[in-house]
Amino acid sequence: MSDIRITLPGSETFTLTGQTIDKLLRVGDGDAALLYLYILKSQGQKTTSEAAKALDISMGRVASAMAVLSRLGLVQLDNFEKNNDAETLQEHSNSLKETSEKGIGTRGIERCGSNEPATKPSDSMSRKPRNEPYMYTEHELSRELRSDSEFPIIVDEAQRKLGKILSPDELKRLLVVYRELRLPPEVILQLITHCINECSSSRSGRTPSVRYIEKAAFTWEREGIFTLERAEEYLKALEVRKSARGKIKNTLQIRNRELSATEKRYVDDWIIMGFQPEVIAIAYDKTVTKTGNLTWPYIDKILKNWHEKNLHTTEQIAKKEGKPRGNTFYNSDKSGAKKHGDPNREEIQRAQRLLNKMKEE
Questions:
Q1: φ and ψ of 16, to 5 deg
Q2: Measured distance CA(213)–CA(50) in Å, rounded
Q3: CB-count burial class (<10 Å; 0-12, 13-18, 19+) for 72
Q4: Which helix (H) or strand (E) holds 164?
Q5: Which of 6, 114, 282, 314 has the lowest CB atom count within 10 Å?
Q6: Mind listing the pLDDT tens digit for each residue in 204-260?
Q7: Which of these ranges, 75-79, 166-170, 199-203, 264-268, has the smallest mean pLDDT?
Q8: Rounded to whole angstroms, how far apart are CA atoms 319 and 323?
Q9: Among 218, 195, 234, 222, which Cα is nearest to 114's?
Q10: Distance between CA 259 and CA 245 in Å, rounded?
Q11: Which residues pair with 4 in a beta bridge?
């Protein structure tokens, strides 16, 4: 593509290279394209606050757009910003990146119905407090609520599902999901329903906060869930994984508490490796016998060792370790599992396939 010369009213003339146009088209970000034109026209002499005012968008959207342009190599922050704006913009960009990386979904980052994290990070893992991403103004919110967009419909349905009138702050968070993450209305409503079901089945039994829903939305956006079909597929995978985790949790004799995020990662790895609960039960017994309690790294080491040797059934392990065929502990029937047609075995295998598929994506 050749260079394109843009002539603005009056004597203003600017040139865009074909490479720059290709970059903007590929990223598909309207705010980034508009901001780039504004920077071009102002010759980089304007601040982010002036850009937000001129384009009639929030500082959060300016930060997001600038992050896109910076990633594409089209701008440098120090060439565009003056005074304290560069620091402000960097904080917005960092908070955006951090929020999109955190997500929630099945990771238990936040309690249902609460604005506080489920667990406090350790000193070594603690982070500097971040600014809120995409904080819309009252004027922007009011304008969106009066518009003929689908947002007012989403608000009405969300309030009906949650059984309450949303506060201005909650409405702004919902607007982030709609405008910034660009989740379709039907997917947003499906997400809200999922969060309600997820929280109602938890110990708290509370209605999810909008902050909880917002964090879950970042996970859905990152997972590419933009259709009801994709949402259904994703939720089925979560349900199967949850069921498989529950069976392994019972095998490990964990009662009256949920698995921690680290424990879930261990269990998911074991499912992906193809281990059934009855095999994990053997590794668990070996671990307790050796260490006196459930030591996750120890049991993980045992299972990884078996996986490397392609030992995935009780029969294979018994044969390898020279156990007698009549040893009841190495008999798969001990855990209630049958060699063929057992629902538990089939469910674990299905969870294994789904986890593998989710990792590949």
A1: -110, 130
A2: 32
A3: middle
A4: none
A5: 6
A6: 678 899 999 999 999 999 989 999 999 999 999 888 888 888 899 999 999 888 889
A7: 75-79
A8: 6
A9: 195
A10: 9
A11: 16
| Nearest by Cα to 35 from 75, 82, 71, 86 | 75
- How many Cβ atoms sit within 10 Å of the Cβ of residue 51? 24
Which tokens go with 268? 């998911």
Q: What is the pTM of this model?
A: 0.51
Q: Which two tokens stand for residue 261?
A: 């995020």
* Torsion angle of the four alpha carbons 317, 320, 323, 326, in this order, in degrees rounded to the nearest 10: 60
Reported as type and span, the H/E element at residue 13 is: strand 13-16
Residue 175 CB coordination number (10 Å) = 20
The end-to-end CA distance of the chain, in Å, is 33
Q: Is the pLDDT of residue 120 over 50?
A: no
* 213, 114 contact by CB (below 8 A): no
DSSP code for 333: G
Asked if 47 and 82 touch (Cβ cutoff 8 Å), the reply is: yes
Q: Do β-strands 4-7 and 13-16 pair in parallel, antiparallel, or remain unpaired?
A: antiparallel
